[in-house]
Amino acid sequence: MAEKITPRETDFSQWYLDVVLNARLADYSPVKGCMVIRPNGYSIWEKIRDSLDRRIRATGTRNAYFPLFIPESFLSREAEHVEGFAPELAVVTQAGGKELEERLVVRPTSETIINSMFSKWIQSYRDLPLKLNQWANVVRWEMRTRLFLRTTEFLWQEGHTCHATPEEAEQMSREILDVYRNFCEETLAMPVYWGLKTDSERFAGAVRTYCIEGMMQDRKALQAGTTHFLGDNFAKAFETKFLDSDGKEKLVHQSSWGVSTRLIGGLVMTHSDDKGLVLPPSVAETHVVIIPIGKKGSPELESVLIASEKLAEAIRSSNASVCVQVDADMTKQAGWKFHEVELIGIPLRIEVGPRDLDKNQAVVARRDTGKKEFLPLEKIPAFVTEALGLMQKNLLDKAKKFRDENTHRAGSYEEFKKLMADNAGFVEGAWCQGKECEEKAKTENKSTIRCLPLDSAWNKIAEKDPCILCGAQKENVRAIMAKSY
Amino acid sequence: MAEKITPRETDFSQWYLDVVLNARLADYSPVKGCMVIRPNGYSIWEKIRDSLDRRIRATGTRNAYFPLFIPESFLSREAEHVEGFAPELAVVTQAGGKELEERLVVRPTSETIINSMFSKWIQSYRDLPLKLNQWANVVRWEMRTRLFLRTTEFLWQEGHTCHATPEEAEQMSREILDVYRNFCEETLAMPVYWGLKTDSERFAGAVRTYCIEGMMQDRKALQAGTTHFLGDNFAKAFETKFLDSDGKEKLVHQSSWGVSTRLIGGLVMTHSDDKGLVLPPSVAETHVVIIPIGKKGSPELESVLIASEKLAEAIRSSNASVCVQVDADMTKQAGWKFHEVELIGIPLRIEVGPRDLDKNQAVVARRDTGKKEFLPLEKIPAFVTEALGLMQKNLLDKAKKFRDENTHRAGSYEEFKKLMADNAGFVEGAWCQGKECEEKAKTENKSTIRCLPLDSAWNKIAEKDPCILCGAQKENVRAIMAKSY
């Protein structure tokens, strides 16, 4: 119930866990760092999967499935890759009652195992481009975990593509960045900044890493997805070559990209409030709950129940994509039910009571604004469709407004330092591309460069401004810095 | 290409692998016993998942996700369970660079980890029934593997339910058995026998195991799915208890059930032929491929290409659920394409050539019957929908006929022995329920009791007949025996 939820102002971190646990999105498991995704949470993941899958397919990518286990030696073939992942690996050393000759790593990501297949499948330029995606679980041994945001095992999709030229491969990583960005805005109602990661934040084994970054309600950044231009790093390690139309043997150029169940955490921290979960209609399993009100056993209640079912049917036939439920369990109080549907993030609540029914009306309440309206029954189906659309838009607008209001432009180190000390949100400013300055932002201000934005002439705009960390005026680029998850 | 496929008559086992590999459904991976599911195979799994998921939801079951890893001690809590699975376990002993304090088993099935959560979530009879399902990967270390049919890692769904009474739990396992059976017949066009497993074939930890059994084209049986009535075995081990309405604390009663990527193997061995894959339209990703025919660069080809695209559009607008592709890659010969679409199991092939186009017609060829028809272009969209429906029905009818023709009734051991020696198919007969007789079928005839059928008064019908293995006439039941995968 709502009483169990710590207000955001009191303790944002506790509020987040309270919402996740009380809305029954996930629970702790007996395995350290691994979570259980409960039906209320998993239904969100299914909506995410379906929407994103359609968008990924539209880029000419097909789904496949590769093994969970990777021979330990595969990881080592790409030097940066193994260095990056070695501390996080879970290793199977025994199987079928015996010690294994070669230890098997539980996949932290699948570049290596997939390249071992690519090198077998790809012979000629006619086999390119090859674009595959898989929906799978991966394991990264984490010291500090938090439900959805960072867990030892998580669910994700990982795309892996091969191209004849580096330009095509990089173009693919940019195309998917757009897919992620549009998906976040249109489906999750979560606005994101998009851009390039700095070298120190690059994926282990990539040439360049792109990312999308959302702002949570505590004004911290959440990395919501990454795409990588891998160059021929993995192709070299696995001899993924093709015979080009000019008769020459060449290495393929690759991209890889992924988003995970972390998005559910981002969704919660973007939209939810002190009453519980707020979900954009596009990822809500149930859109409308009708709550019949009346005294148990009374003839009035009987009419109310009939009218509720009739209304549910009318909504369904007016819009087949709207999922409506009637909560006819009269062992529970209406007040309890109101709290419950707010807690679990049902977008629209409809109350049908005997007195309203006499006036041929019902009350419709919107989860995002809390606004209640009395409406004639026959107008409700059309209103539902309209309200769900408005709610989807309103959540995005609200999140965008919040993000923009909390994104600041800094011209000097003093300004930057103060904004970070105040937890003021994102700071945009010039950066000299020096590692020392990046480090200074981290150690002195607990912030990181989230991305070098790509939304306009990115590498140019900041050239004239001094670096907000050291004051230098040399090859500066525009950077977005923030505290982050 | 088709030439690479060994005929079924020559070597059924090799034919199967040839179809799977050449139709690019799956491939061997560098990890022993683990396969790669390629896009052509994974799209079948997605169709299976979507169709079965809808049917499972209709039973009031919701999807969730539980951890991949299970603490080793959990397995041991249910004595039969650990005994059954211990030889097949893969064990993580190191993670994050350290030796683990408690070794983690990669789930071979999730009864134990899920019960650890059930015991936390279930307090009162109001929490029952609780019906959850998960789509996941599981690992069972197998000595002899075969693509799809038996692999170390496989994909499946596993349902787990809790009920207040044993009757309800058993009823659930029977309800899902019906779901599986209908799904196999309606979606996969694969007829199955359904019934009870003998004690020796029971799931480790179950009270009773039910199963569906299909007949492959080599007349061997394939277990296509199982459902288990678990009684309170796991509830006892994990103290999964509830406070009943009578104020007493009681153990819950449970069911669990699953089908896996093995179904894809069953699909191949039920319908495919010496030309390659044959797919029921309901699990085909692409239903129709239009092949334009003409000389490269000729004006006739231009008209053919335009007419092909127009036809594709007409089919799509006549039936949005039909997926149509035009293969306009003119670097490949039409003859090569004909073989290719047969090999990968496209239900309908349409050839559009200049001469036919002059007559305003095209050729439509059905994959299952090989029948070709010349049809006026405007009649093709309606024909496609009709032909796909007929094909779905025809494949089921054909498989049913084959199965029935190869199911024999035996009255004596001599009859039984001869039928098994002839690889004649399934044998139906009375069984005295003696373990020695079951063993005799195995050692002397390489066959097993596939199930005790449930389709009529099962425990009664055979009472008067002598056991076909020992001749006894005591508490006999009807049994279906066969060689199997």
SSE topology sketch:
The structure is a homodimer of 485-residue chains.
Chain A: H1 12-22, E1 26-28, E2 35-37, H2 39-57, E3 62-63, E4 69-71, H3 72-76, H4 79-85, E5 90-95, E6 98-106, H5 111-121, E7 130-139, E8 153-163, H6 166-186, E9 192-196, E10 208-215, E11 221-231, H7 233-238, E12 241-243, E13 249-251, E14 253-260, H8 262-271, E15 288-292, H9 299-318, E16 324-326, H10 334-343, E17 348-352, H11 354-358, E18 361-366, E19 372-376, H12 380-405, E20 407-409, H13 413-421, E21 426-431, H14 435-445, E22 448-453, E23 477-482
Parallel strand pairs in A: 3-7, 15-16, 15-17, 20-21
Antiparallel strand pairs in A: 1-2, 4-6, 5-6, 7-8, 8-14, 9-10, 9-22, 10-11, 11-14, 12-13, 17-18, 18-19, 21-23, 22-23
Helix pairs in contact in A: 2-6, 9-12
Verbal overview:
- The structure is a homodimer of 485-residue chains.
- With 485 residues, chain A is an alpha+beta fold.
- Chain A has three domains: 270 residues, 2-Layer Sandwich (BirA Bifunctional Protein, domain 2), CATH 3.30.930.10; 100 residues, Rossmann fold (3-Layer(aba) Sandwich); 76 residues, Translation Initiation Factor IF3 (2-Layer Sandwich).
- Helices cover 35% and strands 27% of the residues of chain A.
- Chain A has an eleven-stranded mixed β-sheet with strand order 3-7-8-14-11-10-9-22-23-21-20, with helices on both faces. A five-stranded mixed β-sheet of chain A has the order 16-15-17-18-19, sandwiched between helices.
- In chain A, a hairpin with a 5-residue loop joins strand 18 and strand 19.
- In chain A, helix 2 packs across helix 6 and helix 9 packs across helix 12.
- Chains A and B meet through strand 2, helix 2, strand 3, strand 4 and strand 5 of A and strand 2, helix 2, strand 3, strand 4 and strand 5 of B.
- Strand 5 of chain A pairs antiparallel with strand 5 of chain B, so a sheet runs across the interface.
